[in-house]
Design goal:
This protein is of the alpha/beta class. It has 2 domains: 4-121 and 321-357, NAD(P)-binding Rossmann-like Domain (Rossmann fold, 3-Layer(aba) Sandwich), CATH 3.40.50; 137-318, Rossmann fold (3-Layer(aba) Sandwich). The chain is built from 13 helices and 17 strands. It has helices spanning 22-30, 49-54, 63-67, 81-84, 103-111, 133-152, 179-190, 205-210, 234-248, 271-275, 316-319, 321-336, 352-357; strands at 4-7, 34-38, 58-60, 72-77, 92-96, 115-118, 160-162, 165-167, 171-175, 194-198, 214-216, 253-256, 282-285, 302-305, 308-311, 340-341, 344-345. β16 and β17 (344-345) form a beta hairpin. The radius of gyration is 22 Å and the shape is elongated. Pfam families: AlaDh_PNT_C (PF01262), AlaDh_PNT_N (PF05222).
């Protein structure tokens, strides 16, 4: 029996991405799945209904018709609890679900006995790279953050020699050398800025320098497990902040990208540091949604702090919805392929990626 896959329009505010593109729809149909799509699914990401129909999808008029009998539901963000409660009992759902962030969502998943696969729980292994939505979406966020900074800054990024004199290049500091940070380094360099990148993991130096940036060494290391940073202790944090505050006096633009999975964003840029920056400086904080790397950041707002612009944009990946959706949908397709059996939906609990991603976690 063919696996029935359902995809409805995203309902989260500001969400424009989709978990299925015509490209991945065609691949799922070729794999033997029956794909049902709510009309208008891709309109905000610039994918037309006709393209889904040409790829073999069955188009329906509402979310209930798309999801109610689906064996497998694909999404970017989790549907509301009321929608989860209407899914077929025992169905699987794949996306950025964050079940523990909403008790009602978690209860709906448990009540309907859904096999939920929050892709943010995916193990960070070589095999999982093609399914890693966190990395693919962070790349878009880092790129967009630099463009926002360039727009807000009252100066050029590149050096210019003109009849009116020479304009020096902007000095850009990227905080955090994860995927978003490295993309920010690369983008700022392409725009001609002088770029530094600060990360408490010394092993990121080579990656930063390979992109044309300079590694800013403040003498504090917080190398952790799995490629992530550990939290700093009080003494380490105080020394880091003292040295960083001194350095920021000569920086024109800061792009903050530091994050610790499952925890509030580390507070790195204090109000005192901002006060010491030159008027006209700009801070763009990608971590706004989880508390911000800058003390003054306000999620979704751009404010003036005594001449320093502090922006806390949200949904940056969604602002590049077309390419972000293409990457996200390929990630989702690669994971969903693990669940497609010859005779229907198949969850192979001996597969590390399946077993470690499912929520609630399996015992044993």
């Amino acid at each position: 029996m063919a696996v029935r896959i359902g995809i409805a329009r995203e309902t989260a505010p500001g969400e424009r991405r989709v978990a299925l593109t015509p490209e991945t729809c065609r691949k799922l149909v070729a794999a033997g799945a029956r794909v049902t799509v709510e009309r208008g699914l891709g309109v905000r990401a610039h994918f037309a209904d006709e393209a889904y129909a040409a790829a073999g999808a069955n188009l329906v008029d509402d979310a209930a018709s798309a999801l109610s009998d689906a064996d497998l539901v694909l999404c970017v963000q989790a549907p509301p609890p009321a929608v989860l409660a209407t899914l077929r009992e025992g169905a699987a759902i794949v996306g950025q679900l964050q079940p523990e962030a909403d008790p009602a969502r978690a209860e709906a998943i448990r009540t309907r006995r859904l096999a939920a696969f929050p892709l943010e729980r995916l193990p960070r292994t070589t095999r999982a790279q093609a399914m890693d939505v966190l990395s693919s979406q962070a790349g878009m966020a880092g790129y967009k953050a630099v463009l926002i900074a360039a727009q807000l800054a009252p100066r050029f990024f590149p050096m210019l020699t003109t009849a009116a004199g020479t304009i020096r290049p902007s000095k850009v500091l990227v905080v955090g050398a994860g995927v978003a940070g490295l993309q920010a380094v690369a983008t700022a360099r392409r725009l001609g800025a002088q770029v530094e990148c600060f990360d408490v993991r010394p092993e990121t130096r080579e990656q930063i320098e390979s992109l044309g940036g300079r590694f800013l060494d403040l003498g504090v290391s917080a190398a952790g497990e799995g490629g992530y940073a550990r939290a700093l202790d009080d003494e380490e944090r105080a020394e880091q902040q003292r040295r960083l505050g001194e350095h920021l006096r000569g920086i024109d633009v800061i792009v903050c990208t530091a994050a610790v999975p499952g925890r509030p964003a580390p507070r790195i840029i204090t109000a005192e540091m901002v006060a010491g920056m030159a008027p006209g400086s700009v801070i763009v904080d990608l971590a706004a949604g989880t508390g911000g790397n800058c003390e003054l950041t306000r999620p979704g707002e751009t404010l003036d702090a005594s001449g320093v612009t502090v922006a806390g944009p949200l949904d940056l990946a969604s602002s590049g919805a077309l390419h972000a959706s293409e990457m996200f949908a390929r990630n989702v397709f690669n994971f969903a392929s693990l669940l497609l059996g010859e005779d229907g939906l198949r969850c192979d609990w001996d597969d590390e990626l399946v077993a470690k991603t499912v929520w609630p976690p399996r015992e044993g």
